[in-house]
Design goal:
Elements: E1 2-3, E2 19-20, H1 27-40, H2 43-50, H3 54-68, E3 73-75, E4 80-82, H4 84-110, E5 116-122, H5 124-141, E6 145-151, E7 165-169, E8 177-185, E9 187-191, H6 193-199, E10 215-216, E11 224-229, E12 232-237, E13 243-244, H7 247-255, E14 261-264, H8 265-274, E15 278-280, E16 285-286, E17 289-296, H9 303-315
Parallel strand pairs: 5-6, 5-7, 10-13
Antiparallel strand pairs: 1-2, 3-4, 7-17, 8-17, 9-14, 9-15, 11-12, 11-16
Helix pairs in contact: 1-2, 1-3, 1-4, 2-3
Length: 318
């Protein structure tokens, strides 16, 4: 039964707060107890996990059943089973408790600086040319973080090998991972001025036939690239005359004037600006290849991972 406080005027709009003769049940704590009893299958196991006495757990469940007006558990001397109503209550309570925990963590992290260690796996070319130069500024912004980067084209198991983030070209068919696009990669034709003096400046892809080349091929990657001329898609089969798995090695060989190459634009932008390499066939536009940051699918993404992804979006926005 509820009462208005003594001497209050019931017609006053300020006097709308009601209070009970007894303290209300802590429903969140009771939900935690009920969920743990259901998960452990016994009051005793739940009491050990929750560090409560057995009688306390029994009392919480009894009071909860009275408050709800339903029986949550069917008890015998040897077994404990959820009733249908208990099954529904525990299922919904589990979801609500998880949401409360995520809200608590999220709000708490707003006032905290991210800290801890970040382990990253990144494809070779992008790691060498793009990721490495931007990470020092990230660490200046977040000095309580430390970072280690494994650079290579091997597909890693993020969860099994304890990586926080993997950066790869193109999507991965793995539903346990969350992919967020952070940049794009354009593969373009380049050659040295010396090469063009000897072999001429090609005007079409067909003109490349018979010209020496040096190409990056790593596993199945790099054997074919797609371009567009106007609105027509063109698939270019990469010559296998001289291939290497490292884009940096291909660039260095291309600089000698031996052959033309297909390389990521970010790899050769400086060489083109300095005149060491020329872009060939500019009318053939490369189909952009998205670069994704992958992380494990969780209800709550650690803040250190979130701030890294946000920073990478910012760093590669151009």
């Amino acid at each position: 039964m509820h009462h208005l406080a003594k001497n209050d005027n019931p017609s006053s709009p300020r006097n709308i707060v009601l209070f009970s003769e007894r303290m209300p049940m802590d429903i969140v704590a009771a939900m935690r107890v009920a969920v743990e009893v259901a998960r452990r299958g016994s009051f005793t196991a739940a009491s050990r996990h929750l560090r409560l006495s057995g009688p306390s757990v029994s009392r919480v469940i009894a009071e909860l059943e009275v408050d709800l007006g339903i029986r949550l558990f069917n008890r015998t001397t040897r077994q404990l089973h959820l009733t249908d109503a208990g099954q529904e209550f525990v299922q919904k309570s589990t979801g609500l408790l998880e949401e409360l925990e995520q809200m608590r963590i999220s709000l708490r992290e707003r006032s905290e600086n991210p800290h801890g260690h970040l382990r990253i796996s990144c494809v070779t070319a992008f790691g060498n040319e793009c990721l490495a130069p931007v990470l020092p500024e990230f660490l200046r912004r977040f000095p309580q973080l430390s970072v280690s980067v494994d650079i290579g084209n091997r597909i890693v198991d993020l969860v099994g090998e304890h990586y926080d983030l993997a950066i790869r070209v193109g999507p991965l068919n793995d539903s346990t991972l969350v992919a967020q696009k952070i940049a794009t990669q354009n593969i373009i034709f380049v050659a040295s001025p010396q090469f063009c003096e000897v072999h001429g400046m090609p005007r079409t892809i067909d003109d490349l036939a018979g010209m020496p080349s040096v190409m990056q091929v790593s596993g199945e990657w790099g054997r074919q690239h797609r371009f567009e001329q106007g609105r027509e898609p063109i698939d270019f089969e990469v010559p296998q005359q001289f291939t290497m798995s490292s884009s940096r090695a291909v660039r260095n060989a291309c600089l000698t004037g031996y052959g033309y190459a297909l390389l990521a634009e970010f790899m050769v932008a400086g060489d083109i600006a300095a005149g060491r390499l020329l872009r060939l066939l500019p009318d053939y536009q490369p189909v952009e290849q998205p670069i994704y940051a992958f992380h494990a699918q969780r209800r709550h993404t650690p803040r250190k991972v979130r701030v890294l992804i946000d920073y990478l979006h910012e760093a590669f926005a151009a």
